[in-house]
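Teaching note: in complex prediction, the entire set of molecules is handled at once rather than each chain in isolation. The prompt given to students was simply: 'Predict the structure of this complex.' The entities are:
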Amino acid sequence: MADIDTKIRTKTQGGVTDVLVLVSHPMETGQRPDPKDKNKKVPAHYIQKLNFSLNGKEIASTDLGPAVSKDPLIGIKLKGVKPGDKIKVTWSDNQGQSGSGEATAG
Amino acid sequence: MTHLPRRLFLKNTLATAVLVGVGSTGLFRPGWALAAEWPKDAFAAKQLDEAIRAVFGPGPLSPSTAVKLRVPTQAENSAQVQIQVLAEMPDVEAIAVFVEKNPSPLVAHASFAGAQGFFSARMKMGQTSDVVAVVKAGGKLYTAKQNVKVTVGGCGG
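The expected output is the structure of the full assembly:
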């Protein structure tokens, strides 16, 4: 499987940092019929866990279900982030794939 | 006979590689163990009440205006419904989002250890339904809900 892209964008305004994560993931529910064979369904393939850490310390952990849209765009807010702080996101899906991305707060 | 040392060497390196592999997965585990396991039962629940109980356990839910749920009143694309939950109370521990009439109501659950009480995502909706946000703060459960109309056929507006 090709590597799945994990992009992170941060924006600090008034002491609050918005962290937005975009993972290019199919988020297949397991209920969609296979376009090639109508009797089959496309197997479920979705991110289950997506965790955020700030300078190596876990600050938020999310559990996602198949109802989250394709190419999930997940946002959280942080306070007291200093320029140069490292924000890391790690995720894993139901098929055992995982990925991560890192950004430096500006 | 000349090949024997090579074979032995390969055998040994393979064995070491396997050991290292096992060791490193073992090393990765503690990082993941910090966060609870993915709540399989909660995502499998078919009813809204059942799903909320599976995530948060028993306890009264009180509707609160401090839970700001931002979703469109009408979804133009049911596969990409933007949702934002902002919890304005202190000590927010977790936020969960449910769509009452989805096959499995639980969409996502976020727990915080230092982050603000905010969660945003895009989600799929099967049909017109109430969207429910549940916030756990200071050991209590607060909720807000809004109806989102899904227009099948894509001619929303």
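Point out the following to students. The CA atoms of residues 76 and 85 of chain B lie 20 Å apart. The longest strand of chain B covers residues 140-150.
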